[in-house]
Design goal:
alpha/beta, Rossmann fold, 6-stranded parallel beta sheet, 11 strands, about 35% helix, P-loop_NTPase, EBNA-1 nuclear protein, DgcN-like_C
Length: about 325
């Protein structure tokens, strides 16, 4: 999936700031490809980007209208359809991370069939994939893993990519989830891939390369999450990672949405991920731990990172509070 850039971020008519997290993530990590925002009402949440009409955005060079918000059920509401249809008729590509496919809206699908637009349903993937083979391939790779889902794997991967680039190391973020794909402009949503092809999909996301130094692969789920462990295992095998970064949220009481399921210890998580990763890369090593320390004070967080760094013999940080420079330097040294 290749999505044309730059973007006009479509915020629809949502008023809940959390509903715009996709657009906010794109703007945070790729501000240079966000030309402006399109809001249907003055009450709609804002990213403090320039408000633009479709015509103004097209004149500025926008190529894709990105639906940057979510709503309950992930269904495209009727109030958005006229704007999406107008954009498609003007030649914009349209990208969406909603559960409902854009192509299910018959007028949009007709315009795509006539070659007037391209529709990108990033939560879905329909192209043929090969089964993973585990053969060694050129290039170095890092994969973010976690004690659970939603512990900062995408954020950490993007922060590491940025820190490496700032250090003069050529690194590329490889997306495996819908928001990551919209940030990167390409990728495969792993949770939309049939189980047999997950490792093959990761091999396709990060094939052989010699033109840069590192691929930073966005992790998904957790080996200890009863719902998503299969996705995590396929990622570990397909990535053939040279390096792992473990992500964890301080204070989380149990596996997300499963109060009967205990969180694993950090030691268990490190051991299990290294063992799984070493099936396809015997030299995989842990290079850092990224924590979400929002539940504690900054002083407590700093002390915790210092203590854990001594305990686990790798740099430990909160990417939001303290950055990932030490992890980046350890990666560069490999």
């Amino acid at each position: 999936m290749q999505i044309a850039q730059p973007y006009l971020l479509f915020l629809g008519d949502v008023t809940d700031p959390l509903a715009a997290k996709t657009a906010r993530g794109i703007h945070q990590w790729r501000p240079e490809i966000c030309l402006g925002q399109l809001r249907l009402t003055s009450e709609t949440v804002s990213l403090d980007l320039t408000d633009m009409t479709l015509q103004q955005a097209q004149q500025q060079g926008a190529k894709t209208l990105v639906i940057g918000t979510a709503n309950p059920g992930g269904v495209i509401p009727e109030s958005w359809q006229a704007t999406l249809l107008e954009a498609a008729e003007m030649g914009f590509e349209i990208a969406s991370g909603m559960h409902q496919r854009l192509s299910e809206f018959a007028p949009l699908n007709d315009l795509q069939q006539r070659g007037l637009t391209k529709l990108h349903d990033v939560r879905h993937y329909d192209e043929p994939l090969k089964v993973g083979n585990g053969k060694a391939r050129s290039g170095k790779r890092l994969l973010t893993v976690g004690t659970d889902c939603s512990v900062g794997k995408m954020f950490s991967a993007l922060a590491i990519e940025k820190a490496l680039q700032q250090s003069g190391c050529k690194a590329e973020f490889k997306a495996t989830g819908q928001t990551g794909i919209l940030v990167a402009g390409s990728g495969i949503s792993i949770d939309a891939v049939v189980a047999d092809f997950i490792s093959g999909a990761v091999e396709a996301i990060s094939p052989e390369f010699t033109d840069h130094d590192w691929d930073i692969i966005e992790g998904q789920g957790s080996l200890f999450n009863p719902s998503f462990a299969g996705v995590s295992l396929g990622l570990l095998h397909g990535a053939q990672a040279d390096a792992l970064v473990l992500c964890h949220e301080i204070g989380r009481p149990h596996i997300r949405n499963l109060p009967h399921a205990k969180l694993p210890s950090i030691e268990q998580t490190i051991e299990a991920n290294l063992q799984a990763a070493r099936l396809t890369n015997p030299d995989t090593q842990l290079v850092g731990i990224c924590l979400n320390t929002s539940a504690v004070s900054e002083q407590e967080a700093a002390q915790l990172c210092q203590d854990w760094s001594k305990q686990y013999h790798v740099p430990v940080t909160d990417p939001v509070r303290f950055g990932v420079a030490e992890i980046a330097q350890k990666i560069i040294a490999i």
